Structure formats: structure tokens, C-alpha cells
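ugh ok fine here u go
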Amino acid sequence: MPSPDYFSPPPAPSRPQGPEAVDLDALYDPPTERIRNGVLHYLADFHREYLARATFFCLATGDAAGLDASPRGGAPGFVRVLDAQTLVFADWPGNNRIASLRNLQQDSRLAMLFLFPGLDLFLRINGRGRISTDSELLQELREGHKVPKTAIVVRIDEVLFHCGRALHRAGLWSVNSRLDPGLLPTVGDVMAGLARLHGGSLAAGQAAQANEHYAHAVRTDLY
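structure:
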């Protein structure tokens, strides 16, 4: 398991003070013993079974300037378990902002929220991450002939399951909740709007071309 030296210490948390502070303990009941006992500092066998089938999670990171959350997806098993307290996953191409990677260079804290299509629960992992360019590790994480440039190694501080009430409030898995793309601006429309905001414009047909390119790239240029 990676030594603690790989992970930078988190900054001291700030605490609200003054009239804006809210007495949360007066508003909310404490968690039950069952909920408290459900928070572990290592992966049990049942966590590993879920991770072996996980295909999507959101990754939260931050730095002194603020916070960021980004989606991560892959085939079942794309998040690898190295040991009871350590995970790893590849960083695959996105929009090249690489906000998560830049954040981890300043603050190693991160959070992972896993969704499982069709299931009424979440898996949450809080911990600390580091960026790895170890060639052997990257080879293990390759997809076909594509090898990632970096991987994120996570040391687990907390792992817990979370109930799926939010999924039902959103109707997320319901067919009736699917949005009609014709009712919203397309990628090309958004690009045209951004161009106008910056004092420019798209040439005739560019918005339609952007839509066609996006529809192809988002499904085929995965790695």
C-alpha cells in the first residue's frame, strides 16, 4: 500500500463563526448506530463486489480557489482495487482542463460518488489521491492499445453506502424522466451562444457540423 508520504496533508478546515453559523445539531437528529457502523476505513468484500461492477462515478477535488466535480466512466472494473485501502483508475481524455489533476497537486483530498444504473443506492468514498505516471501501472490500466498518460491512486479514509432517495426524487432511472434533446440547446447552439458572448459568431453550418462531430466523438473517441 502506498505510504502516507505520497499524499499531501489536507489544509485545516475553516469553521463558520458569527451570526451566520447554524446549530445543525438542533435541527437534525444524530445518525443511528447502524448508519455510524456503516462507515468503514477500508474496503470489505461487499464493497469490492460493487466496485468490480461500477461503470460511473463523480470525482470531487479542490484547491485554494474552489471546488470541482467531474464525471468518470468505463467498463466494469475500470476502478481497480489494489488493496483494502487503495484504489486506482486511469485518467482518460476529456476537455483538457485537467482540473482534477491540477487540484490534486495542491490538495490531495478527494471524494468519489458511484452510481449504479437501475440500483437504488450510492457508494461513497472519501480519501486522498496522488497522480501516478508509473509505466507498469499505466500498462495495467490500458484499454486496447491506448495507454493513459496518468492514473490517480486513492488512499481510502472513509467508505460507505448511501440510500437512493435522491434517485427516486429525480426519477433518474425512469424512462419517463428521459429528456427530449429537441427541447434544449444543442452543443452547436451552445458553441454559437458562447461565440456571441465573446463578441464573435459561427459561420453558416458550423453549429450543425459541431453537432455531428460531437455525436460521433462522444461515442467513439473514448480513449
